[in-house]
Design goal:
By secondary structure, the chain is α/β, with parallel strands linked by helices. The protein is built from 6 helices and 6 strands, in the order H-H-E-E-H-E-E-E-E-H-H-H.
């Protein structure tokens, strides 16, 4: 691939006759762009402005439902990432009180729509997310995700975009990530 790019750039400087097809050059440039975009889409941006006031391990979180976030896989993606950290979660309706749950999480998210490459169907994608952890109403931690400046992580899954945020919010659960099987989590003491 590198050879094609170099040859394309140097072809006009060569003496003699060079025959190139513009469509082949355009195809090569497009292929390079798609490959770079595909590789970069696997790594979402790191969290923006993470703030953590407590590094205690957390075992259970109640998530306050936000119906304004129009992505059906947002909460399941968030719960999956929490589970990787050994955190059980349940969802409660906004405006109600989460009983017997000292740690709560609220979230916001902004969604845009666009078509994927080689598709005419519009699909939603997450452009911004904010997660805030609270214990008995006091903020424990907060982190935000913003889509990359070139949209390189546009089509990454919600879980992939939220994973760095959950990592930043739960530094006390880092030992759980290595072995988060349900059998090992039952015997752990401490945390919330």
């Amino acid at each position: 691939m590198r050879t094609i790019i170099i040859a394309t750039l140097l072809a006009p400087a060569l003496s003699g006759c060079v025959v190139t097809s513009t469509s082949a050059l355009v195809d090569a440039a497009s292929l390079v762009g798609y490959a770079a975009s595909g590789v970069k889409s696997m790594s979402p941006n790191p969290p923006a402005n993470p703030i953590v006031y407590s590094k205690d391990p957390i075992r259970e979180i109640c998530i306050e439902w936000n119906g304004a976030v129009a992505l059906s896989d947002f909460v399941p993606g968030l719960q999956g990432e929490l589970l990787k950290h050994g955190v059980q979660s349940r969802v409660y309706d906004a405006g109600t009180q989460a009983l017997a749950c000292p740690v709560t999480m609220s979230y916001t998210g902004y969604v845009k729509w666009d078509t994927k490459v080689f598709s005419d169907a519009y699909s939603p994608y997450l452009t911004y997310a904010s997660l805030t952890l609270r214990r008995d109403g006091r903020v424990l931690a907060s982190a935000q995700y913003r889509i990359g400046s070139f949209g390189q992580d546009k089509w990454a899954t919600v879980g992939e975009k939220l994973a760095p945020l959950v990592d930043a919010l739960l530094p006390g659960n880092s030992s759980i990530i290595a072995d988060n099987s349900p059998d090992n989590n039952r015997g752990m003491n401490g945390g919330y």
